[in-house]
Design goal:
heterodimer; A: 416 residues; alpha/beta; eight-stranded mixed sheet; two-stranded antiparallel ribbon; 14 strands; 38% helix; globular; B: 221 residues; 8 helices; 22% strand
Chain lengths: 416, 221
């Protein structure tokens, strides 16, 4: 146990995290009492704020905006240095000049989801009524709530129609919710490694993670911030369990096999003898440095509740009836968290709605996380899909929109 | 003209005289601009691209992952799927035309597939290699072997084509399931149409492949 405790002692202070939740290192859109976010649970959330990053420049007719929806444990820092960890953006491989999401051509937006902990209002934010963090007083949020908040952000940015909405995993759920809720605002959609509903197995894994957090004595029923603690052990275990579901047996075997960590013989203890154990402990401890435990509870819950068909009389195809949005659905062969069968069910529903849909299953052993990794086939498909959608949208190939903002992001990239 | 690159994994590289295959050009010519089309077994998307270039709203289904990914990388709206199992998921009248190009003989249930084509689409365009072609007959008659041609190079044990038929067989199937034949073209070995005014048996003998434009028969269908 000593080792697990030692790996979990955070090097980033909880005050830094708390500060980031209220005063993020991102642009912030504030919505006052007159502009509440109408949540599915029936509560009007006001005031609230959304923290977001942008890359590239919006063109004159405001038609080149791409919204990236981030996954459960990620945030808006797609292609810039993360303010807490100092690490590179999580999708730099995808976003940048000449990349599939080309910042020379598109205006890229990514906002922290509502309920998150990187600057959009969530359980780690300060509740204006008490002056303390919301904790479990924060209302339960859903995927549709996240998307509603993003739509309000776009209204604020005066972007009527998105050229594309793209995202993987929980981000893919938001993409699908966008097309179901605001089909006329989405020209094209690229949902990756996701599903129209969270499966029983996935809910089960989330429950495991939540129970790990809540079983940590430092959790204090969600009011750990009042005691200057953080349930980092519980959250690390949740992350470790989650991380296994993002990989695959083949990938783990390829990466670690049964290899030992800095030793030749087993220690006959519960030390991290195996490389895979050491890796998981590292994943757990690095995660707790940048993520709020309550936020993890809320976001996993939002995913559990997600079921587009249920919102449309149980018929998935009804959600997409008459939709004009161009879809490109992508799944990965070794993803057992959101297996291809889920994507196929979505594709069948889209076909039944006569939607213009492409669907590619990409062969890889890297599991669910493949959408974040260097999978050239995926990049080719994303690039080609955006290219053809861009033609249909009348987006030029020229560099007309290269700009100060763009140059800025390029410098940022270069500096890393 | 090579025909089998879609249905046959072991297919030979098509002998191209121009940018597009003659049978593709023939299919494209049967479909009016502005139509909504589903290409079942669309391979690497060559026909779909031709159709899109002519202002036709094309979609595709393709069994092989490599084919699908190449199509999507070409910007085509193609999904990975199986003609035998996935056509049932499409609603009635979803398309103006459904194309089955050189794929019928590779399906497990050609009759069911054909019925589905004309349920999903108001019209269907079907092309297939004609096993009544004289060269095929000769190989079986004289050589005593299952026929293999330049366009159908696979041996009997590794071919993906499991339901070969002749033009005559196909015409009979259409009659049996009340499918109306609006247009029929037989292409000879060189991809040239066999003259229209010749009787059926000539087509069945000298057509290396048949291309048919079909629609639903009477109210009974």
């Amino acid at each position: 146990m000593t080792h697990l405790q030692s790996i979990s002692s955070p090097s980033i202070h909880s005050e830094d995290r708390a500060h980031e939740a209220d005063h993020p290192t991102s642009t912030v859109a504030k919505f006052g009492m007159d502009q509440p976010l109408k949540l599915d649970c029936g509560i009007d959330l006001a005031p609230f704020q959304i923290a977001y990053q942008t890359y590239g420049e919006l063109n004159a007719d405001r038609s080149n905006a791409i919204l990236i929806c981030h996954a459960l444990t990620l945030d808006q820092h797609v292609a810039n240095v993360h303010p807490l960890t100092g690490k590179a953006g999580w999708w730099e491989i995808m976003v940048g000049p000449g990349r599939p999401l080309d910042t020379d051509r598109y205006f890229i937006i990514c906002s922290n989801v509502i309920g998150g902990c990187m600057g959009s209002t969530g359980p780690a934010s300060t509740n204006p009524a008490t002056g303390k963090a919301w904790g479990l007083d924060f209302p339960l949020i859903t995927i549709p709530d996240m998307v509603r908040a993003q739509a309000m952000l776009l209204d604020r940015l005066e972007i009527e129609t998105l050229f594309c909405v793209i995202g993987g995993s929980m981000g893919g759920m938001q993409v699908l919710q966008w097309t179901a809720a605001y089909p006329e605002r989405v020209f094209s959609a690229l949902p990756v490694a996701c599903s129209t509903r969270h499966s029983a197995q996935n809910i089960a894994f989330h429950e495991l993670g939540r129970q790990a957090v809540m079983a940590d004595p430092d959790w204090h029923h969600g009011r750990y911030f009042e005691r200057s603690t953080h349930p980092h052990r519980g959250l690390a275990v949740a992350r470790m369990a989650g991380h296994i579901t993002y990989l695959s047996d083949a990938a783990l075997h390829r990466k670690f096999g049964r290899r030992m960590q800095d030793r030749d013989l087993p220690t006959f203890s519960f030390d991290a003898d195996f490389q895979v154990e050491s890796y998981l402990r590292y994943q757990g401890s690095s995660f707790v440095e940048r993520f709020d435990a309550n936020s993890y509870l809320y976001l996993t819950r939002a995913m559990d509740y997600f079921d587009i068909a249920a919102d449309h009389n149980g018929v998935l195809a009804q959600a997409f009836r008459g939709i004009k949005t161009r879809f490109c659905v992508v799944s990965f062969t070794s993803d057992w968290l959101f297996p291809t069968s889920e994507s196929r069910a979505l594709v069948h529903a889209l076909n039944a709605s006569s939607a213009r849909v492409s669907f590619a299953e990409i062969e890889t052993d890297r599991g669910h996380d493949a959408f974040l990794l260097d999978v050239p086939e995926f990049f080719d498909i994303a690039r080609a899909f955006l290219e053809s959608a861009g033609k249909a949208r009348g987006l030029g190939n020229n560099k007309a929109f290269s700009s100060e903002v763009d140059t800025g992001s390029r410098e940022e990239n270069a500096s890393k | 003209m090579a025909l089998q690159e879609q249905a046959l994994p072991l297919g030979i590289t098509p002998d191209r005289t121009g940018k597009y295959r003659t049978d593709h050009l023939l299919v494209a010519e049967m479909i009016p601009q502005g139509s909504k089309v589903l290409d079942v077994g669309c391979g690497d998307g060559e026909l779909l691209q031709l159709l899109e270039s002519r202002g036709i709203d094309g979609r595709g289904i393709e069994l092989s992952r490599e084919g699908v990914n190449r199509c999507v990388a070409r910007g085509l709206a193609v999904v990975q799927g199986d003609a035998d199992t996935d056509l049932v998921n499409y609603p009635d009248d979803a398309f103006d035309y459904v194309i089955l190009s050189q794929t019928l003989q590779a399906t497990r249930q050609p009759k069911v597939v054909l019925e589905n084509l004309l349920r999903i689409g108001r019209r269907a365009v079907v092309s297939f290699p004609n096993f009544g072609f004289w060269k095929m007959r000769l190989q079986l008659l004289v050589g005593g072997h299952m026929p293999r041609t330049e366009n159908l190079p696979a041996t009997w044990y590794d071919t993906a084509n499991i339901h070969f038929c002749t033009i005559k067989d196909f015409v009979e199937l259409c009659d049996a399931i009340n499918v109306k034949m609006e247009r029929a073209v037989a292409l000879d070995l060189y991809g040239r149409p066999v003259p229209l005014n010749l009787p059926w048996w000539v087509w069945n003998m000298f057509g290396e492949q048949g291309v048919f434009l079909l629609s639903r028969g009477g109210a009974g269908k």
